[in-house]
Amino acid sequence: QVHVVESGGGLVQAGGSLRLSCAASGRTTSTYAMGWFRQAPGKEREFVAAISVLGGNTEYADSVKDRFTISRDNTRNTVYLQMNALKPEDTAVYYCTAIRRWPRESYDNWGQGTQVAVSS
Known about the structure:
The protein is mostly beta strands. It has strands at 2-7, 10-13, 18-26, 34-39, 46-51, 58-60, 68-73, 78-83, 92-101, 105-106, 114-119. It contains no helices and 11 strands. Strand 4 and strand 5 form a beta hairpin.
């Protein structure tokens, strides 16, 4: 299993940017496609973005396409999510996890997440 620790969340004004990081331990991330998911208050967890093992393929939810960029550094066992042009509806707890089936089916193995709050 891949164990992850997410970081980089915070409070930002609409239109601002944040960069989330996902540091992995255990089985290295370089053997898994990785993804970001988010859960807003009162809503189910939803897919945000995924990146293939070597980073050559990415997939995004329509709601974040052209605003968010997922990347990875396998030498550091770290996955990133650059979030630009943030909107209040991006407010959620963001989670990183390994992808079981490309691109949106995750393993049921979640970290503590990192909170992102976007004010209008």
